[in-house]
Amino acid sequence: MSAVPSPVEELLTGEPLMAHLGTCSDGRPHVAPVWYRYDDGFVELVTSGRKLADIKANPYVSLSVERSDGGDPEWMVSLRGTATVVENDEAFREANRRINRRYGAPEDAWAEENTLVRVDVGSASHRTY
User: Fold this and answer.
1) Residue 25, pLDDT above cutoff 90
2) Which pLDDT score, from 0 to 100, does residue 102 have?
3) Secondary structure letter of residue 50 according to DSSP
4) Would you call 64 helix, strand, or coil by DSSP?
5) Which of 36, 62, 70, 88 has the fewest CB atoms within 10 Å, i.e. is most exposed?
6) What are the phi and psi torsion angles at 93 (to 5°)?
7) Phi/psi of residue 102, each to 5°?
8) pLDDT tens track for 28-38
9) Any idea of the CA torsion for 118, 57, 111, 20, to the nearest 10 degrees?
10) Rounded-to-integer distance, Cα 81 and Cα 126, Å
11) Residues ≥6 apart with Cβ < 8 Å to 94
12) b/e per residue, 1-33, with b = 16+ CB within 10 A?
């Protein structure tokens, strides 16, 4: 059974909102916005740079997604999980296409710069306002 309740899955798979990915570098938090795709207890994202280096050093991550209207929050979701770097070209291409489609970008955008990361969600919390 998924750690993410059905109502929360609906929020995560609805409109394409930014997630904020939290990683840890040298015992300090690092948070950056990312595009993502959620499906059945897993989050797919493609990333590079500091985020990717952090994940390779420490796979424990968190993601936060929120929906607001003019600065007034409507709902928020926090996920905690374990990230895996996927070193498979075909899996990367498929995930990159799915994520880019979700956000209305060309399907092959950012293919040169990024690596696929899958997050196995261990816990989820949410709140509606």
Assistant:
1) no
2) 97
3) H
4) strand
5) 70
6) -60, -45
7) -55, -35
8) 999 999 999 99
9) 60
10) 15
11) none
12) eeebeeebbebbeeeeeebebbbbeeeeeeeee
**Residues 81, 118, 97, 104, Cα dihedral to 10°:** 20
Domain ranges of the chain: 6-124
Which pair of tokens denotes residue 128?
């509606």
Q: Strand pairing partners for 25? A: 28
> Which residue in the block uniquely carries the two structure tokens 């300090």?
28
The fourth-level CATH superfamily of domain 6-124 is Electron Transport, Fmn-binding Protein; Chain A (2.30.110.10)
CB-neighbour burial class of residue 40 (10 A; exposed 0-12, middle 13-18, buried 19+):
exposed
CA distances from 68 to 17, 24, 31, 63 (A): 10, 27, 19, 17
